[in-house]
Amino acid sequence: MKKNANLPALIFMFALLIVWQCIAMGMNAAYILPSPTQVLVRLWELRKPLFTAHLPATMLCTGVGLAISIALGLLLAIVMDASPSAEKMLYPLIVASQTIPTTALAPLFVLWFGYTIWSKVLVTVLITFFPIAMTVFDGFRSAKTDMVDMLKTFGAGKKEIFLKLKIPAALPYFFSALKMAIPMSIIGAAIGEWLGAQAGLGYFSRRMMTQLDGAGVFAPIVLLSVVAMIAVGIVSWLEKKIITWRSSL
């Protein structure tokens, strides 16, 4: 059964690719909608600049932005859990930060930091820290009140309750947030590169668009999707190795 667990997803993906191929062949306009085979061929033709220059630039931006987002999100979640006053003060601001269109702020980041990595990192952090902070905060709040009361009766302080109860309770939430944050961090880096950069897959896709190269536009997008799926798969594997008690429930 385990060997066939991914079979429905593979069949569905294969069916979508066939539909895409048929529609693209029917349109016969590769500059608007290239077929999957045309995208793969173009990806192979552009493999040198994509893999040696643009993919490393995007992954560096994604990695730095994701690391900052994890640190910031965890810090905000811990502070809000520790202090109801901090929760009332920070929660609305965190939510409000997600109402600002990223495409409106990204050009400002470029003006402030130029075409350096930090303009793209800020876009990534702005998109990514929110699900980490909110999800981990919900994880802390999921710790059962009766368990907290029981630990208090045994003389446990806030530090012991946090380490022995709240962190284990929040771990599944953290991994769920991380699986959401990884694709979002890649999207954030690509958006930042699209609006202002000298290298990166987002920049490369925009450059191909100016040349009306539809397959060239899709090639870095496909590469980004594959990288995101691999990264999420690694996180899922780590989750199963670390949260061993979930499989026993």
UniProtKB/TrEMBL annotation:
Q: Which UniProt keywords apply?
A: Cell membrane, Membrane, Transmembrane, Transmembrane helix, Transport
Residue ranges spanning the membrane: these are 7-33, 53-78, 90-115, 121-140, 173-197, 217-238
The record's subcellular location field reads: Cell membrane
A single GO BP term for this record reads: transmembrane transport
Show the Gene3D superfamilies listed in the entry.
MetI-like
Q: Which InterPro entries match?
A: MetI-like, MetI-like_sf
Q: Name one GO cellular component term.
A: plasma membrane
Q: Which residues form the ABC transmembrane type-1 domain?
A: 55-236
Topological relation to the membrane, as annotated: Multi-pass membrane protein
Among Pfam families, the record links this protein to: BPD_transp_1 (PF00528)
Please give the family membership noted in the entry.
Belongs to the binding-protein-dependent transport system permease family.
Q: What protein does this entry describe? A: ABC transporter permease
